[in-house]
Amino acid sequence: MKRLLLPTLITLALGACAVGPDYQRPAMDLPQSLAADARPDARVDLTWWTAFNDPVLDAFEQRASVYNRDLLAAIARVDEAAAQLTSTRADLLPQLNGAAGGQRGQPSSLLPSSGLQPGQKVIGEQYNASLQASYELDLWGKLRRATEASRAELLSSQAARDTVALTVAASVANGYFQLRTYDEQLDIARRTLKSREDALVLRKKRFEGGLISELDYRQAEAETATARAAVPLYEQLVSQAETALKVLIGASPREIYQGEVSRGKALSTLNVPPTPPSGLPSDLLLRRPDVVAAEQQLVAANARIGVARAAYFPDITLTAALGSASLALGDLFTGPAALWSFAGDLTMPIFNWGKTGAGVDIANARQKQALASYEQSVQNAFRDTRDALVAQQKTAEQLVAQNTQVSAYTRTTHLARLRYDNGYSSYIDVLDSERSLFSAELDRANTRLARLQAAISVFRALGGGYSQPQDAGKPAG
């Protein structure tokens, strides 16, 4: 009968139902699709930055994926969660421990229990060796729920790592495009300065020859100084953008201080990926790593309710020991020295001033917090996507208008200079047109950047990107 006890209890443990609620994804009011009819085969392109077709950017992204410190820390957190799952899952299995010991000594002859006469000395020895096995019957599913929670936390940490990877990739792309924007604006400032310095030389000669007033000359001098002041400003911004990009790609301190940053294509020649193709299902956003991480935290919190509820029920632990003990080391492994034991322990709370119930309330409250966080992450996903799609469309429209504006101001400046040189208008007209052209060119560079950043935001909002034809994308303009 006793031989049937252990197999029977193990069978009951394996077949028992786990207490606590089983996880079900919360129902949410989602739109049918992000563009047109949903297509279930839509997928995320993990190397979405290659759509910009800039080999230098590709190299930066590759290096960041290996050396970025935030990403390395996130990978270490995944390793920690994986080890935690292994530790938790081990509680489901029998535990086996070995023990061995020996002692040699003399008891006090003054103690009656020693059986010795006063002053009598006897050296005694004792040796033992044993194997001890223990197993907790998971009748109520406490250990299985704990393992379920640890597994969900591992998945959450993996999704959090993917979130960090996506954030780093977006930051590298944004940082690289910001650097190229400052490069362009520095070039505009230098070209403007060169043009104004050349014009100032002519103005000075005409002033000294009495052909123009000192007012015209001083105004030209002031505008030249304005352009000259812009050059070191953009040189500083370029240097700061280079340093920020070096940190993102994991450069060493020496590289940060001394290294050079490669340049690729000009912003005006970069491909700008189109808006997402029709057929992207709305539940594509539920695959975003931050949404997945939030959902797995909800799964874990849901499982922790079962762990807390299981505290209402008794814990049953079976233990067994097999070994030997002897007063002489040579007799330790002989038949008469053998010993064994088998025991079962049952413990359960009787009265603990509401501590068990409070534990359940804590688990329920944390599950509600995780639910709210998950729902908010879904809301944020759709908000980010809508904002990014609108920004991509509107910045493209804005860039078209600004291209026209720059062309118009370029022609206006040329005509204003001709009219002034021929005495048909004042120098104020020339200054106004030059200022407008300088400002319009700088603004256009910022709009090119905004258009590229909007495309990055679309990729990021979709959790990494989407499939698209190989020939998709147009120059930034």
TrEMBL record:
Residues 1-18 form the signal peptide. It is found in: Cell membrane. It is a lipid-anchor. GO terms for cellular component: plasma membrane. Keywords: Lipoprotein, Membrane, Palmitate, Signal, Transmembrane, Transmembrane beta strand. GO terms for molecular function: efflux transmembrane transporter activity. The keyword Transmembrane applies. Pfam families: OEP (PF02321). It comes from the Bacteria. The keyword NADP does not apply. Coiled coil: none annotated. Residues 105-115 have a biased composition (Low complexity). Residues 96-115 are annotated as: Disordered. Belongs to the outer membrane factor (OMF) (TC 1.B.17) family. This is Transporter.
